[in-house]
Amino acid sequence: MSTLEIIILALLQGLTEFLPISSSAHLILPSQILGWQDQGLAFDVAVHVGTLLAVMGYFRKELGVMSVAWLGTINIGPEKNTSSFDGKLAWWIIFATIPAGLFGLLGKDFIEEHLRSALVIAATTLLFGFLLGFADVKAGHRETHKPLKKLGLKGAMLIGLAQAVALIPGTSRSGITMTIGLMLGLSRDNAARFSFLLSIPAIAMAGSYLTLKLILSTETVNWQAIGLGSLLAFISAYACIHYFLILLNKLGMMPFVIYRLILGVGLLWFLLA
Description:
By secondary structure, this protein is mainly alpha-helical. The chain is built from eleven helices and no strands. It has one domain (3-272). It is globular and about 55 Å long. The two termini are 30 Å apart.
């Protein structure tokens, strides 16, 4: 990989991982359209580490509170409280991660072989873009929103099932989880925050799987590419989360819906023209 490719792909991963526009699609498309070589396992690990550190760093206070509260639910640590909201939220995230883990474990080979084409990406980009737009319009017209405390395990599991569907390239993990969160009555801000917190174990699992594959492979590791990719992915992802949450309530999801529709139509035109 050239330095230019490393910079572009790392920035794409960082910027698109948490925006509702599909990071996997934006990483696959350069090779599909521009003929770039596959970035390789080592680079995949690097950008996953960068984005994981970014979201954990941004939500470090929430993660600290949730960790202590979760330990309290199993009678460990100074705060033994089985009914605290932060403890429940931690359990919701743990259980809601299971569908994506199972789907990834059982369906990864099929997805790799059959669902990484530009045509699939175009279709999922359009379909889930429309759904995001519908959910955002409904949320904008809603006078009151369900507080995150009222989401419940059932609601969390529905969002977790949606995250499993996002393993299909072009769907967007953050996009579909925010869509379901909005449909369940959450505000845009709470839907986004729950989506970001739910992403942490999902990204960690994906990064661990890729790391294991890298260890078992004979691929030569370019440490300079790994370092640069991780750093750029971290910086761009952290900035993306920060400004996305600031602008979300002002702009809503429509800018991303419009972008997805333009991208999907453009891909179809490119493929079918």
